[in-house]
């Protein structure tokens, strides 16, 4: 074993023991013990029963002798030990596994993030999930791009709009670059969320319905671009160059906060006139 493997194996063992010992069996609805024990928390037998694994396996993990647990076992242990989201992510990292996100798709904006999008006015801002579904937006973003309230919820997707919606298709001066980067982002998200059925359905729809997307998808470009400039030919305000920033909230790492700022004085004046309407 490498030094790194030994360190993470020992930390995995210690972390499992510490989280088991901090739990009160009464809080989990477990039957009372016949006699008091010196060791606090749950017994290894309790954890094994709650996680659906053998007691011997829990013992070996807590002693640093077990093989690396699978993602399913890590998930079962995280549920049994009532881990917080941060603790769950830490356990997956120690085990060298990637957590599944299929059972908790990000389909709504958490209220604090929705308020933040509103509070960012007069800067155009919107919140998206990892598959580019638009979850929240402020009035300035609708004036710059599109009134998302007029769209069915299934069509509030930035990638679909860029490829399929006539207004958005004509908006970007360097549309080829914008679409290419968007497809590369989408492929990166798909690799990180292979079990996300809505995401795979979106990709399948675009592959069959848009030749440009199918060609770019076949290029297999990978890119995560968190900032840059975009030149827009707005039908009401003329040419506007915006500088975008994409921020990822720590509490909701599968969501992205997109904020636009004017890149020059002329664009700032045009954006102010547009948003003042």
UniProtKB/TrEMBL annotation:
Pfam families found in the cross-reference section: HTH_31, MLTR_LBD
GO molecular function terms listed in the Swiss-Prot or TrEMBL record: DNA binding
PROSITE patterns referenced in this protein's UniProt entry, alphabetically? HTH_CROC1 (PS50943)
- Residues forming the HTH cro/C1-type domain are 34-88
The record's listing under Gene3D superfamilies reads: 3.30.450.180, lambda repressor-like DNA-binding domains
Q: What is this protein called?
A: Putative transcriptional regulator
Taxonomic classification, please?
Answer: Bacteria, Bacillati, Actinomycetota, Actinomycetes, Kitasatosporales
